[in-house]
Structures
1.
Amino acid sequence: MTDALCYLDATDLAARLRRRELSARELVQAHLDRIEQVNLAVNAIVTLDPEGALAEAARADERLSRRSDVPPLHGLPIAFKDTRLTRGMRTTHGSPLFADHVPDEDDLLVDRLQRAGAIRLGKTNVPEFAVGSHTFNPVFGTTRNPYDTTRSAGGSSGGAAAALAAGLQPLADGSDMGGSLRNPASFCNVVGFRPTPGRVPSYPAVNLWDTLSVPGPMGRTVADTAFLLSAMAGPDPRCPLSLETPGAAFRVPLDRELRGLRLAWAPDLGGHAPADADVLAVLETQLPVFTALGCHLDLACPDLTGADEAFRTLRAHSFDLAFGDLLGSARQSLKPSLVRNIEQGRDLTTDDLNRATVARSRLHLGTVDFFSRYDLLLAPVSQVAPFDAEWEYPRSVAGRPTESYLDWMRSAYLISLLGVPALSVPAGFTPGGLPIGLQLIGPPRADLAVLRAGHAYESATRHGRRRPDLATG
């Protein structure tokens, strides 16, 4: 019964809680039992507060007994990404420097989700300072893929994705600069959504004008992901780029016919992101699903010339802003790849930043023009299938040796630069049983259209309903 309950859709659980067919205490206890049974195998949840979660669940049940107008996430348990400030609960960022850090405030997203009724279970694992798309750190170790525990769960929201796939929580928050929502979703056969920048505001933040890194939702279905987005989204006066659309705009039915949509398929993003053959073999079998749904499909891609250099320049600059002070005070406590990123940012010139900014502006206008001809762009989420968890990053991509831990992430981070919404949805498995995700990309601010297309594809395929075989007990 515990396992079945822990794999119900979040929207179904929310409805059962409201109808009092299920209590928040029962639901939280079921997830705590599941965590005890299987978390050791995946190492997804790294900080846990069972007593606090059960006490809050009791308060939630008491509120519902007195009134029916409870908030939308009433009673749903969630463990927050361990880069999110959580008042009274440690936030380590996966770094020994913050191993015992207990904030005295919640960040904006944590506050919003708890006000929306979510019950805090604990924290999910991240790479050190969320750097890289493989989740390991010296504080908690490596998060492993529920579908094959010898493989990576992706990152930086790898703990969140693995926890979803393993049935440890029904919803998860994450963040995405170079694919940190989409890559782990692809690796773990769940859904991850990078919203349009500003859709989900971030506070506190070193750079309130940043549009490269965005918070976003994850779920086991597109509908669950949109449901969580509805509690995340909406403006905040402290965040100058936040969009005015209220979150409730995403708490709507996603059913929509796709007939007549113009889709572009870009298997290597115009030659800028070659993918392994096993990834493409899975994704190319999925293209007929869209034509069967009535879509027109072309082989096409926006011009991404200069996008790689622009992304890496702006990313390095953001790392210097966020972590530059640590170079002088704690260099020896930082992993080498983080040190290199900070130093690259520190070495940038004004001309470097100007070129990247101009290139990004040109790429944005080209993308807008592209989406005047196409409704959606389809592409791989990741260029590789889940790789060995003992590696920091894959050793090769499409037959070429990798030179850095970023080289295999181009299919995600080139899209990040464009400022458009992008969804990772389960698309099938390799012959060895490793999950592969499909990326659905839309025009700027067309978040709901992307979610609706993902929902239609998901309903036609149901790849996300395949569960991992994790031993319990």
2.
Amino acid sequence: MSMSRKLGAEFIGTFWLVLGGCGSAVLAAAFPEVGIGLLGVALAFGLTVLTMAFAIGHISGCHLNPAVSVGLLVGGRFPAAELAPYVVAQVLGGIAGAAVLYVIASGQPGFETAGFASNGFGAHSPGGYSLLAALVCEVVMTFMFLLIILGATDQRAPAALAPVAIGLGLTLVHLISIPVTNTSVNPARSTGVALFEGGWAISQLWLFWVAPIVGAALAGVCYRWLGASDD
């Protein structure tokens, strides 16, 4: 598969992740009387990854996330030469998804960004959780998400079920951590919406790059041992 097609798939997939996941939080989570709530938002993020894994997994691997690319690199599943182009495509896709979401959301009278599904800690955590709590949460949640990805895509695992396991894994991650950080585990997702929220969201964005990448790298190291063949 050519690099241009891989990068195009990553751009489109991350665009859909941000538009679908963050869009559910901005447009539908608290909609009067029929809002989808926390469970609906968690499912929306999981469903975006599940659907795109079936749609583009055979093209680019469907990373949609710089942390996933790093975790797969450390785990020996992804070439180092492709890391930077993948990350750029993912971040641009995330920004494009956030831009479309902003255009849609701003069409409502009296629109205010009101966080715009950005990730935060302290006063900007949905539950008021501290920097340390947010750091630990994002590292651990990304670690577990990458273990799911690495295990589900292992050549010894049932290949057809990998997208289901990964999508449900991301849903569970969101169910646990939305109250803490609004759930990142994905620097591209965090960057896209933070640029439109501005201010505090940009000043806290560093955490949602550092923590997911650390968690993903640790998972890559762990799975090299955990999934090693005894032969």
